[in-house]
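Researcher: I'm preparing a figure for a lab meeting and need a structural model of a single chain. I don't have an experimental structure, so a prediction will have to do for now. The sequence is pasted below. Please return the structure as tokens so I can convert it later.
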Amino acid sequence: MENVGDKSGSIRKRGFTILEVLVSLSILVFILMALYQSYSTSIFVLSSTTNLWKAMSHAQNELLESERATIPPPVSVNQGEFELDDPMSGFRWKKLVRDTTPLPGIMVRQVNYQLLWNEGKSEFTYDADIYVNPQ
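Model: Understood. Here is the structure written out token by token.
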């Protein structure tokens, strides 16, 4: 005779085993690590691109002033850093103006503008040149 209140043999227990939970948590951790790595890489690329764009824009504006000047810039070497309240803060600059002869009998003045900045452990530079009439 069967006991009416005892149904343990016919009822299956439903739920996850500890092994299934651990496997699913480890898969979740790997997915989250991959997403975090992707996010941090995209933030670094955005920062690098922003700094390069700032450097290019600033250098081109500086060279445009030399190109449009009525008097050519004197032969010189200047360098410095930007102030903390300047939009280019964190960058260093170097301006080299020299006379050069690219072809025999042709004298031009080369204006080289270089920007330097640090990102992490690396130093980056952007150089731009323009050639103007020395007279």
